[in-house]
Amino acid sequence: MRFFRHTIADYTCTKHCGYHRSVPGANLSLFHVIAAATATIPLWVLSLREHFPWYYFVSILAGELLLVFLAGIASSFLLTPFMTAGTSVCKKCGAPMFFAGRHFDPLGSSRPHWTDIVIFVVFVTLNVAVWVALARGSI
Q1: How distant, in Å, are the alpha carbons of 28, 30, 38, 95, 111 from that of 1?
Q2: Would you tell me how many other CB atoms lie within 10 Å of the CB of residue 21?
Q3: Cβ proximity of 6 and 23 under 8 Å
Q4: pLDDT > 70: percent of the chain
Q5: CB–CB of 4/109 below 8 Å?
Q6: Distance (Å, rounded) from C-alpha 35 to C-alpha 112?
Q7: 27: exposed, middle or buried (C-beta count within 10 Å: 0-12, 13-18, 19+)?
Q8: Does residue 17 sit in helix, strand or coil?
Q9: pLDDT given for residue 135 in this prediction
Q10: CB 29 within 8 A of CB 3
């Protein structure tokens, strides 16, 4: 099953020597939704213990999805230097590269790209920060 979706940016040599570079970027995919739903379960169990209504699950899931988006935004700042490296000069002839377009990966991927892993690590870190804040009583 294909859990990951990517947007691929293509760069091509201006001298048409045949060199091109494709840089995948992560999109919200089934993996990220499953990670958010899995992170919802402990908070939902805690909210049941605190006698909150059952429909708070929807609000907690929405909060986890927002945390996935925040993880994506935070990781975009972390990944910017690494994503643009190697896209300015051709490795074959040294000519400048130009941006040839961006497209969605139509089939998706069954394996994560390293950007997916970075987003997941940032998401887990944000969840740990939420849990620590809940344990301290500051939320």
Answers
A1: 16, 10, 18, 40, 10
A2: 15
A3: no
A4: 98
A5: yes
A6: 13
A7: middle
A8: coil
A9: 81
A10: yes
Residue with tokens 């958010």: 36
Per the listing, tokens 């990951």 go with 4
- 107 is written with which tokens? 């089939």
pTM, two decimal places = 0.81
CA distance 76 to 89: 22
Strand order in the sheet with 20-26: 20-26, 6-13, 97-104
Q: Which residue has the tokens 């294909």?
A: 2
Please tell me the distance from the alpha carbon of residue 55 to that of residue 33, in angstroms, as a whole number.
Answer: 19
What are 120's two structure tokens? 């997941």
Give pLDDT tens digits for 5-41. 888 889 999 888 888 888 888 888 899 999 999 999 8
pLDDT at 68: 94
Beta bridge partners of 117: none
Alpha carbon distance 36, 68 (integer Å):
7
In the structure encoding, which two tokens stand for residue 92, read together? Answer: 């074959």
